[in-house]
Amino acid sequence: MTHLYGYPDIGRFGLGHSMLAWARCEIWCRNNNARMLGPRWLRPRIGPYLRRERDRREYFKLFTNDGYVGEPWRTVLLATARKIPADAAEPAEYTGRNTVVVFKNTGTSNFESHFHEVRGHGRVLYEAFRRITRKKYLPHAPVAPFVAVHVRLGDFTRFDQSRVKAGMHNNRLPIEWYCDSLTALREGLGTNIPARVFSDGSDSELLPLLGLPDVRRADDAESVTHMLEMAQASAIIGAGSNFNLWAAFFSQVPRITYPGQAIVTVNDDPSCETSFLDNIPLPDLFIDHVRRQFPQ
User: Fold this and answer.
1) Band of the pLDDT at 294, cuts 50, 70, 90?
2) Coil vs helix vs strand at 274
3) 261, 173 in Cβ contact below 8 A?
4) For residue 20, which of 255, 266, 261 has the smallest C-alpha distance?
């Protein structure tokens, strides 16, 4: 008897980028009654050590492959089965012998090219992602509503407004933009909703933001814990990063981004996403979406 499998070849990218191949494969396997070969999370990376980043990207410590085909069968199937790139796969090619459909991430335009394959499946993927995350890295439930502010610095390049507005990613945003965005959100809500800052920057780099009322840095934790914690927020103010993109997508969290930096729309209702600049008030409909996130 022959079988059909999917395999997410995640590559050596960061967590947010890597996850798209996993998510595409997860949904494809569900839709095609196929079994999924577990991703190879063990991908040694030297860059995070050389750059002295907070996140060493040792993802094999964070995830299990529970529910997926693991070793030794994964290696056997990858060595012996017919392998077809997901972009080229045709149903007729799935018969006759064991077949593995391979999903890969691309270095550029990864989300622009492939996110449509998972759009609308946020909740399903959220549960699947929590299932493979080791239990000790799952965050506790929040005791009160909060705003997640994701400030990406690290390996991002110096801010260039023209490039950022044109949709070029991997650019640092001014800390003042995060401050102004949070202030605008609070003014719209009519309350100083607490905020947690998730960042790879230092306290000194984040000082203007951390100096605002009821703003604190998120507790030190692994990247996956921070992503899942952000998914529990009532709103996300985020850098042009696919890290906060996943958090918003998983729980359909209203998201504020800098113009040109959303990457893709991740909320099923596009009015749950907005950009902010120049102290223009946030749309009333967006504010209403955030209020609906509050516990009743």
Assistant:
1) confident
2) strand
3) yes
4) 266
The sign one gets for the Cα dihedral 264, 267, 268, 269 is negative
Q: Which of 150, 151, 170 is nearest to 160 (CA)?
A: 170
- The owner of tokens 């972009």 is 87
Residues 208 and 215: their CA atoms lie apart, in Å, by 10
Omega before residue 259 within 30° of 0, cis: no
List the domain boundaries for the chain: 4-137, 147-292
Question: pTM (2 decimals)?
Answer: 0.90
Give, in degrees to the nearest 5, the angle at Cα 139 between 135 and 140: 110
At 82, which helix (H) or strand (E)?
strand 82-85
Q: Are 221 and 239 in contact (CB under 8 A)?
A: no
* SS3 state of residue 294: coil
- Tokens representing 280 are 């223009």
With CA atoms as reference, report the closest residue to 19 among 123, 100, 126, 142.
Answer: 126
Residue 196 has which token pair? 């947690």
CATH tag for 147-292 (out of 1.10.10, 2.60.40, 2.30.30, 3.40.50): 3.40.50
The DSSP output letter for 77 is H
pLDDT in tens, 47-64: 454 445 555 557 889 999
- Provide the β-strand partners of residue 8: 103
